[in-house]
Amino acid sequence: MKRTFPLHIQILVGLILGVVYGAAVSLLVESPVQIQQFTSDWIAPFGQIFVKSLKLIAVPLVLFSLVNGITSLNDISRLGKIGGKTIGMYLLTTVIAVSCGLIMVNIFKPWEAINGETAKEIIHTFSNAADTKISTAIDVNNDGPLQFLVDIVPENIIASSSNNGSMLQVIVFAVLFGVALLAIPKEKTSTVKHFFEGVNDVILKMVDIIMYLAPIGTFALISNVFVQNSTHFSELLAAIGRYSLTVIGALLLVITTSLIFVYVLGKKNPLKFLKSISPAQLLAFSTSSSAATLPITMDCVKNKVGINEEVSSFVLPLGATINMDGTSCYQAVAAVFIANVMQFDLTLVDQLSIVLTATLASIGSAAVPGAGMVMLAIVLGQLKVPMEGIALILGVDRILDMCRTVVNVTGDAMVATVVGSKVDTVASNNP
Ligand code: ASP
Description:
Helix content is about 85%, strand content about 0%. It has helices spanning about 5-30, 35-70, 75-110, 115-140, 145-150, 155-160, 165-185, 185-210, 215-230, 230-265, 270-285, 290-305, 310-320, 325-340, 350-365, 370-385, 390-430. The structure holds aspartic acid.
């Protein structure tokens, strides 16, 4: 089946119609309660169906594409090389992203735009919702320093596969499985390899089919976000608009550094790169989930940017789970903003410690809507800033989540492009 319009145009149309619908309700309807009800009863479910179908694919896609990617490397030393480069790039870009956030927040000082009274009012309005995020974060915070290592090792792969939040455990299993497959003589494993290749193709076809829902799903998701936030949104934006603009400015800076990497290390035209991954970016914006966007990110990077499958099917599933440039950048801006509004003076050492905690917190954030904010509580905890401060930014978080997810997905695609070009160069130097 061929599409009449390219996918990114279809998603864009859904997105624009969603914004128009949401803006019309916010601006034209005085008491939007009925429309909010109508939207959540009759429109939002289509968005949920779309996101659920994408999530349905996430675990099998990660499992099968990783095993496929690893076995197509043909030997373990190649896996070590690609894996080392990938993890190195992920850490480097995350540290750069946190630094971009720190630079922007120190230049724009968004806390100066908000007075103590307004801060108290906002905290009061959103404190209930913030409590839930805080208690989740406290659970995480009480763990020992090596708990995250313990957590990524699955004890039961069926149990891990049945939970989208345990993606790292699925990755550990897939890597172990792939490595074991490589270590066994080829004649013995060809049936298993063909099985994994075949299932992987089927899953990619399923993604294709689900994407027919994309325009409607995007419209439903975007219109619902705007309509449900319409009551408080304009006052909130007035109060913490400067904070939101600082986050967006910092995210733009991160995207710019990603494009520089694409040009300098990936040897690709940055504008063409952006065009190639635009369907994934639009989908990331609408779903706020890098995990849900993963199938399309893989499709764009492989078929449009032209990165070979052995790299893209290894780098991207890993990146969707652990590499979050947008999230870490946002956590830096948000932590410094909240600390200052709550009149905590952060020293240079405090700010440097944010680089470490935000990097770790972004690795630990799940690739789903709102996860970055839960982990923000950990960054605040480290700085000894009261976690209630999260209430300050809760109201605008969904919109900023949409923006940071775009940056997360762009960062993953960029690293795949850079690693892909390095691998190609090595391959062509050693025929
Ligand atoms: N929504 C983000 C993602 O899925 C994570 C976050 O920052 O909340 O990539």
